Amino acid sequence: MKIPPDAIIADAKITRYLLVPREQDDKSKFLAQAGFTQENPELLEAAIRQLADSTPAIQDRDNEYGVFYRVTGELIGLNQRNLAVITVWLQRAVDGEFQFITLIPNKESANEV
Predict the structure, then answer these.
(1) Which of 37, 47, 80, 108 is most buried by a 10 A CB count?
(2) Whole-angstrom distance, CA of residue 42 vs CA of residue 45
(3) Cα 38 from Cα 66, distance rounded (Å)
(4) Which residues are CB-contacts of 74 (< 8 A; sequence separation ≥ 6)?
């Protein structure tokens, strides 16, 4: 199954969460390794969409909000460095729309060499 190309990726998820330095659960430093910064949030969104378009989604779990899916692969970086990630998506129960939830560094994949 593939995440549809019109899946919702909220601007705030990228500009106010993923690319913002945080004391806990900081993803901005991880993403900066591949050149994704607050100055180019549209490039991170494009990389997330490219991953979702090229890699099958695996159903993970479901709850009252809908069905959660994971897409595991690499975000293609801007500086010739790719990042191993797991992206989490929700097919919302209320309207069937797909929505990007978060991105997690894939530490298992990063340790494989």
Answers:
(1) 47
(2) 5
(3) 30
(4) 51, 82, 83, 84, 85
Mean pLDDT, the chain, integer: 94
Structure confidence at residue 109 (pLDDT): 65
Instruction: For the full predicted model, state whether its pTM sits above 0.90.
Output: yes
- Spell out the alpha helix ranges (H) of the chain: 11-13, 28-32, 41-54, 107-111
Tokens encoding 102 = 């978060």
Distance CA 76, CA 34 (A): 8
Distance CA 20, CA 13 (A): 10
Which one-letter DSSP state was computed for residue 29? Answer: H
Q: Is it the case that residue 49 has pLDDT exceeding 90?
A: yes
Task: Find all residues with CB under 8 Å of 91, minimum gap 6, and list them.
Answer: 66, 67, 68, 69, 97, 98
Distance in angstroms (rounded) separating the CA atoms of residues 59 and 97:
15
